[in-house]
Amino acid sequence: MKRFLILLILPMLACGGFSDSVAPTITPLSPPQIDSVPATDTQPVPLTQTSVPTANNFPNANDYQWTPIINGLDRPVDVQSAFDGTGRLFIIEKYGVIRIYQNGQLLDEPFLNIDDRVNDWSNEMGLLGLAFHPNYEQNGYFYVNYTGEGGHTRISRFTANGNSSDPASEKVLMIIDQPFPNHNGGAVVFGPDGYLYLGLGDGGAAGDPLKHGQNPNTLLGSILRIDVNNGDPYTIPSDNPFGNEVWAYGLRNPWRISFDLANGDLWIGDVGQGEKEEIDYLPAGSPGGANFGWSIMEGSIGYDGEPQPGLLLPAAEYSHSNPYEGCSVTGGYVYRGSMPEWNGIYLYGDYCTGYIWGLFLSNGQFQNQRLFETGVTITSFGQGENGEIYLASDNGSVYTLTRK
User: Fold this and answer.
1) Which helix (H) or strand (E) covers residue 139, if one does?
2) Domain locations in the chain?
3) What is the pLDDT averaged over residues 236-262?
4) Exposed end of the chain (fewer CB within 10 Å): N or C?
């Protein structure tokens, strides 16, 4: 498909970045900034803590760096693992290709190539999300989110065999109409309950003109929850709160959602309008029906209205001004890898500034600290089956967090 790069729309604004074929090592920000934000009383259930740091006890970022492991990719926007014991990383390239990184090498042959059906004319369109079935080793199923004909969102299942998959194996589960070419979301994630969770934006334009955010009867502006193990092509879980696919709502453009590998907590990066970027949080076991506030609220401030009971406040937020810390949040993952000092810290970043923060909940308060200034555009984070964290950038590289 012919590629038209219209670099004007969030979440991936053209903010520069490195263009060299060899990616630089990312150095930490110094000095760090620390914010302590009280957890709101709107959290549905209390957190069951699992090996989190003590308050304000972040690792010294100067002792760590983001080390490049892959270069030469074509606009990588997601990094995933199959959790099948092979240690492979699967990297989505926006224009419709999934690549494999295995045993320190980027394989020449793609895992999947569907560029013939991916509509990528807008900066926020393309092949956007990937998840592997919990029984992937047995059934070979994986699921993708992409914009297809007409720019509408497609959720599809493919079947893999070894290091490749057949594009003709596509089974379309859902087609979701998109009224505008931005705010497509794109996340595809299996939850601890075995259901498939999907992150959908509010349909685009600015200010939620169709008011999807506060309408749980539309699939837009929501996190969807479906059962792909029963029914054809899926069924709606009986405990979904609205009798449809919607599980949570009030989101503008959730650019990356993730579940903590250790305890099942859900973390959401929701791209803001003009003032605030936010991270939202739901502890494991939360019932459906959470309302994150858009477009009544943008972050913790009013947008179409004023803060009111029943709307969940962010776990963390940052500003587009005073001080300028970024313009488009990239949601991340809770670290569960080989460096115990990072265990339990949720790492997330901003596409425009390349800043990376750490966030965790301790004794009822969210501890939030800016840790790294990467100098690259952060399109996505990823997590290996060993719990290590990866970072993808528009510069064509993937990095991992390491000690110096």
Assistant:
1) helix 136-139
2) 28-403
3) 98
4) C
